[in-house]
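Amino Acid Chain and Its Fold in Token Form
===========================================
Scope: a single protein chain, as residues and as a discrete description of its fold.
Amino acid sequence: labelled as such and written in the usual single-letter residue code.
Position: the record begins directly beneath this header, with no further notes in between.
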Amino acid sequence: MIAMYNLWNTTIDNSTGLYHRIPLLDAQEYSLPGYLVGGPGESAMQEWNDFGLTAAQGGGNDYALIRDGPETYRPSFNAYMVANARAISTVASLAGNDSLAETWSDYADDLYSRMKDMLYSDELNFWIDVVEGSNLRCEGRQLIGYFPYRLDIGTNETKLRGLEAGLTSEHLLTEYGPTTLEQDNPYYTEFKNTTNCCVWNGQSWPFSTSVYLGTLARIARDGLSDVITPAFFSQEMSKYTRTNYKDGVPYTAESHYPTIDMWSGDTTNHSENYLHSTYMDNVFTNFFGVIPSLDDNFVMKPLVPPNSEWSYFMIENLPYHGSLLTLVWDQDGTHYDCGGNNSAGLSLYSNGTLFHHQPHLGPVNATLPFDTATAAQHLASKPQWQNILANPNVPWAGYPNVSTSWCFNPDGDDCLYPAWKMNDGLLWYDTTPDNRWTNNQSYSPYSVLDLRFARPRKISSLSLAVFADSDRGGVVACPEGLRIADGRENQTVAFRQPWTDCVPNALNTVLFSDPARRSGPNTTTATDNEGEGYTLETDHLQVTLSDQLRYTTAISEIQVWAVPELGPRYEAEDGLLGAFIGGFQGKAVGMNGSFEAGGVRLGPGGWVELGNVRTNDGEAGRKEISVIGAGRGTVEVQVNWLSNTTVDFAGNGSRSIEVDMLRGGNVVTIFQTDGMPFIDAIVVGE
């Protein structure tokens, strides 16, 4: 946490002690600072359209600066850093390091003091942006001024009154708002003045609205305001829910017009994936009131309006402190059948066992039916499964890989959807996704997919993300049948004909069965082993998919989840090879290493990276690592992207070095610096 925090040190201004970024890099292009310096000579913009005239001719706008904004001290970003410093202090305290906890607590307090001195407007009684260097104060309410309170920063009564003042129809409130810039600001635009997706001088931004709702919830829960009440939160939450619709169905895009029911930033095959804006956090934590804590109590402070239409709801299998919780609100006890436990009111279950009941939907402070520390230890002891088929370097890296005999090429030359799309680590279900493979126009009623790994791995299941568009008139549907085989001996480990439980546009996990235990001619039954399938060890899986009549098949991604092998030996071929990157958006032009003979050979500029490398006891400390290799050459070994240690090879053998390792998983990167070294593995010593 500390190492990651310190990576932001390059953005600190030594004179103010505050962090600065251009608004674009804080995800807010076209925001107030850009307009205040984007005019002639870095003055305030006067007219949006200057027709390309120079400053002498009455123009002179710098549209790139208006878009990106200047380096700016932002209350949002500095609040993040205060909160992160406090989090480090809390974790240090939990670990028993009181001195470190005090250091980071003091740093957080000092940073907050600097924020108050420089980023708070006494005139507005509100947090504002300040341009780095010139210290130009961007006087105007932006929605990011509500961010600090969400992070428990700036919570005194004076600042709370300032938050209340912006909650009017003259300032931030609209039918589909709040607006990102208050409406009485001269730079506010109700309708975008550019086709750029995101114009944050007024448009409604789902992400900022989510943070804003978090602030409202904190205030409303504690009864600190006559303006920001539970009823007001419910009003704003309902408004946000109405905003997140399109054509009558739930939908979240990039930006929304603040006064009309229309998305203003909405691009096909792009915006469909914008449900990242903590909407569900606002439902669970704020509306239903589940407030996480570090102790053995379960706390709820619902903001559901009393006597409302919310006469029932259920949250099922909510992960909490190593347990799965189910929360059931059934006002009259008639809506849900809980196995005969049908009591009117609010019922809380842990792993299916009732541990709290009350007749009303109100605050809860109940003792959990388990010891949190024990539950955490149990959870930590569980294996951390990894998708061993994912390969972000495809198609240039050798393993793991997916291949097929068919590729859709309507032009007769270019393969639009190659097989490597199925293991590139990207998964989405756009209207017409470009990250899928399809057997469209194939000559055969079935397709065979070959999955190959660099070495045999223990595997018990396979997951297929099946794309379909038949419900909207397309020709892609779930496969009619599925067969998975161990490719070495062609032994069937899963068979579905028909594949009746295939779910379109979702991840379908198929558990393997023992080839010797076929349950019937058309199906296999997974081995009953706590929900896990039969385990085989192989470097080759073969997946056969048969099409439904009149339809084709498309797969967005295939995943193979396996328990990682936690040392002390870590095979180099399990690592990620580096790629020569060039061109727009990181287009790879080739690999700088290759898989061969149970390891990797590194070419000029090559590297291989191994993740989740642990000490034998899992604790931090200075440890010995043996780099097993061959060939002639020199490599540098780096742990957690920190200092490098040089290792020379002159033929077969291994070289041992001492490195500092963190508790838990570490990242070891091996860089070629000379020759063509071969890396077999690394071994972590005592």
Q: What stands out?
A: DSSP finds eleven helices and 41 strands in the chain. The chain has five domains: 1-14+72-166, 167-287, 293-381, 386-562, 569-684. Residues 386-562 form a domain with the Jelly Rolls fold (CATH 2.60.120.260). The longest helix spans residues 98-119.
